[in-house]
Automatic annotation (TrEMBL):
<dbReference type="InterPro" id="IPR044152">
    <property type="entry name" value="YqjM-like"/>
</dbReference>
<feature type="domain" description="NADH:flavin oxidoreductase/NADH oxidase N-terminal">
    <location>
        <begin position="427"/>
        <end position="760"/>
    </location>
</feature>
<keyword id="KW-0560">Oxidoreductase</keyword>
<feature type="region of interest" description="Disordered">
    <location>
        <begin position="202"/>
        <end position="236"/>
    </location>
</feature>
<feature type="compositionally biased region" description="Low complexity">
    <location>
        <begin position="226"/>
        <end position="236"/>
    </location>
</feature>
<dbReference type="InterPro" id="IPR002938">
    <property type="entry name" value="FAD-bd"/>
</dbReference>
<dbReference type="InterPro" id="IPR036188">
    <property type="entry name" value="FAD/NAD-bd_sf"/>
</dbReference>
<keyword id="KW-0503">Monooxygenase</keyword>
<feature type="domain" description="FAD-binding">
    <location>
        <begin position="289"/>
        <end position="363"/>
    </location>
</feature>
<dbReference type="Pfam" id="PF01494">
    <property type="entry name" value="FAD_binding_3"/>
</dbReference>
<dbReference type="InterPro" id="IPR013785">
    <property type="entry name" value="Aldolase_TIM"/>
</dbReference>
<feature type="region of interest" description="Disordered">
    <location>
        <begin position="770"/>
        <end position="798"/>
    </location>
</feature>
<dbReference type="Pfam" id="PF00724">
    <property type="entry name" value="Oxidored_FMN"/>
</dbReference>
<protein>
    <submittedName>
        <fullName>FAD-dependent monooxygenase</fullName>
    </submittedName>
</protein>
<dbReference type="InterPro" id="IPR001155">
    <property type="entry name" value="OxRdtase_FMN_N"/>
</dbReference>
<dbReference type="GO" id="GO:0004497">
    <property type="term" value="F:monooxygenase activity"/>
</dbReference>
Amino acid sequence: MRVAVIGGGPGGLYAAALLKRLDPTREITVFERNAPDDTFGFGVVLSDETLGGIEHADPEVYRALQAEFVRWDDIDIVHRGRTLTSGGHGFAALGRRRLLAVLHRRCRGLGVELRFCTEAPPAAVLAREYDLVIAADGVHSATRTAHADVFRPQLTTHRCRYIWLAADFAFDAFRFEIAETEHGVVQLHAYPYAAPAPAPVSADAGLTPPQPRCAVPDTGPPPPSARSSAEPAGSASALGASTVIVEMREEVWRAAGLDRADERTSVEWCGKVFNDALRGRALRSNNSSWIAFRTVVNERWSHGNTVLLGDAAHTAHFSIGSGTKLAVEDALALAACLEEQPDIPGALAAYEAERRPVVASTQRAARASLAWFEELAGYVEQPPRQFAFNLLTRSRRVTHDNLRLRDPGFVAAVEDEAGIPAGTPPMFTPFRLRGLTLRNRVVVSPMDMYSAEDGVPGDFHLVHLGARALGGAGLVMTEMVCVSEPGRITPGCAGLYTAEQATAWRRVTDFVHTRAPGTAIGVQLGHSGRKGSTKLMWDGIDEPLDTGNWPLVAASPLPYKPGSQRPHELTTGELAALRREFTDAARRAADCGFDLLELHCAHGYLLSGFLSPLTNQRTDAYGGSLAGRLRFPLDVFDAVREVWPDDRPMTVRISATDWADGGTTAEDAVAMAAAFAEHGADAIDVSTGQVVSDERPDFGRSYQTPFADRIRNALGVPVIAVGAISSWDDVNSLVLAGRADLCALARPHLYDPHWTLHAAAEQGYTGPGAPWPLPYQAGSRTPPTGRTDAPKPRLTLR
């Protein structure tokens, strides 16, 4: 097999070394446009997981790297002059030049041909001459660009600017420092990559002259930092060395004049801002420039016998780890798949199938982390320990329980600062909305059951909602209860537009208040709009009825999807009638004894259809600008609030993004939430999507919670977070970090009606936030699963 590797970064070199070691008969050539020492990164962080893979695959490389590593456990968070330290994290780093030197030596020893100062021929040319072409040519990959029609890349440029620098001493820990300048918030990310040397070594101060580069024609667009999205090189001083990254929002960068500054001025500016952290020492650069991070996602990773690896295939923001880490893991997987599969097409398919979900998970975490730093200004007013906890858990990979295992003292201090009693998980603290105090932070999310007859809830609803009320949640929400017969989604949807329906709902609320005292029950009122007259979910979700259709109404006459019924555009007079339907239903809900009312302005139903620019194309006062699109939903809210009892809270559910181009933006969502809060909403229930049928949601664990987080910390308004929150650890993390006040869970409550009580039992909590119903108290402990008293073996006879 003949293999060509485009790009001599760590991923390309390690792939070459592994493939040659596994089969010495392979002819492997690495094409690198730069000189061997001409690298643009200072330090590289690798996880224990990655190092374990390297140790297993190539012990020689592992031993060489192990000799170079500097290790540490702590993270320091510095904010407003206060340093908080969290331990037990475990990092390993080394200089990028040292990493490359180890891989160069290994490749040469194995017989890999390294062609430095050599521009690689186009991948299409190499693909005709070689059996396999590995494109490890970085974030600005020429290979990916040349075959964009096949790889179908999606490139997203983000809102912060950052610069890679170095300090000629080793920080004691991974350091995050926040500076609040006259121009805005600036953050520092720093970590050691070289330990202090035993003897003094001359060190550069200030700017390091650029290293000699190869005299090759510049035939591609990549700038000097193109090989890696993560790291700009340098030698270590007698005091060691650290990577220093300075990052800020684009508007802060411009306000500080850094968009017009040269390299020296930028370095000096950063040094002044973080002078205390740097102990008065100058920063060092290496052709460093301000960069806007770019997330790379490819629909496909291979094309014929050409495969993308590392940053060419995907990028993840530096704040959760090294791009080098992902590239090395790619190399390990690719080499293994080539060994395991009978041919190259099968190997490339297996490689992508193995790595894609891992990378997708990493990218979700990276986007959450990236977004957290983009919104950093919204968090700086948090109490110091909560701020530190929020920062540490920003990517959702480190959680409350995980951090408690790493550093129990740190988590205990965060909880004490928040006023949480010792031994009480954050999820079991009370929360007050107007005159209603919820005993814990768990909400049973509204879930359509499609089991009503003529809009009347029956025995199913009594058992369904009653069981979940007995299950310990602080608040149980009904499904969307429709305000009129034409406002139903399906023939099985429940309503509150007749006296018979109200009587049936009273039966449910009476049961909850009598048999599950302390549990609140809320009603969600809504109208289907253009998404009505469809089949029951299990018969074909969002599919029009075969017979018995009723006419639909909406903000604009736009069908939900091809084949859906075209709705009638509501006139001004019809809007007034609809408003009365909402107020009539609200009066009935109050008489039924519901403790809370939520107005459904999400998921593409009627009120949501007014809010989104994709579904509201009106030219009158109820369309156009966001203020116009808000007009009718706010009219309805005001009318309902007027008839709803003053001591009972009202919430509003919104879709904070449409997951579609041209739809509701994150900024729109904050503005919508602010408008409803100003009109008296006690909390905003922050959901996303389901507004247009061609949406592209970014699914993943807790994937909607950043939208709630942003609204809460931008406005100070209470929020309910939703969206694949699946564990009590997630709830504890979100509440303690201040990203959400309440957490609504749907599917977990379908799986386990007693989810909240079981969460309490699993955490050893027996306090007032999760009391077991008296008839169930005997089951409040986890049942034994097998014999545990068998005698242990004492001797082994040979």
